[in-house]
Amino acid sequence: MNSKLSALTLLGLTLVNPVRAAVVSDFENLALAPNSYWAGTTDPSVPLYTPNPGGFNSGLATFSNQMTDWDGFTSWSGWAYSNMTDSVTPGYENQYSVYTGQAQGGNNFGLAYVTGDSARIDFSGTVRADGFYLTNTTYAVLSMLSGDSFAKKFGGTSGNDADWLKLTVTGLNGGAASSSIDFYLADYRFGDNSLDYIVDTWEWLDLSPLGEIDAMQFAMSSSDSGLFGMNTPGYFAMDNLTVTAVPLPAAVWFMASGLLALRGFGRGRARKNAVID
């Protein structure tokens, strides 16, 4: 191959198919005052009782959010972000705190309230998801430990009830599901009650089995459910979601680099002809 053509081809490969580094969504790019949160906004042009679609970005990820104005109060679902760390106050009023008492890294963390298909993450292109850290919120943990006006105490009065709280993460590519991963945020199904647990530390969830994806959908389920869905608070916290952008397919970047090389070669021929004329 012509040496100039070879050099241009190599340059094309470098430009079109660069080395991809992992990108972390750590929520630190999102401004928050101390001991505060963001859980969505409402738009006056959107009718009352209608969800206001919204969201926020961190790293390569866009986190979905919906807030609804009920003409006097608001509710949200999907994703929020927070730096609240009250680990002792029970109840809905403390729904934005993480039970660990701190983010996994930095100050901020993501927070999901999962109802239906409201909790979703979309990526700016195809990625391979390495994983993320997750843990329980204070609201969920204290509800499972002691029960509340909506939900039962996990294990029941005897401690023998086989209760559980599960998160399911489904990878999506072009709208189609790739595969799913389950993670138990609490598990009381053991024959030996001393093995029962509620997650109270940041734990790494490996997402590599999802393969190449462009979005993720989150669902939660619980042993304590009724006619209207889960009684257990459907929350979890996330930090340091790590993904790597997938390079273009080989056929695409070879073609693109070849076109780049031919373009450069053609310009060289034009310059040579101009000199001769």
UniProtKB/TrEMBL annotation:
InterPro entries: DUF4465
Keywords: Membrane, Signal, Transmembrane, Transmembrane helix
Coiled coil: none
Keyword Transmembrane helix tagged: yes
Highest rank taxon of the organism: Bacteria
Signal peptide: 1-21
Pfam families: DUF4465 (PF14717)
Transmembrane segments: 241-262
Keyword Signal: yes
Record protein name field: DUF4465 domain-containing protein
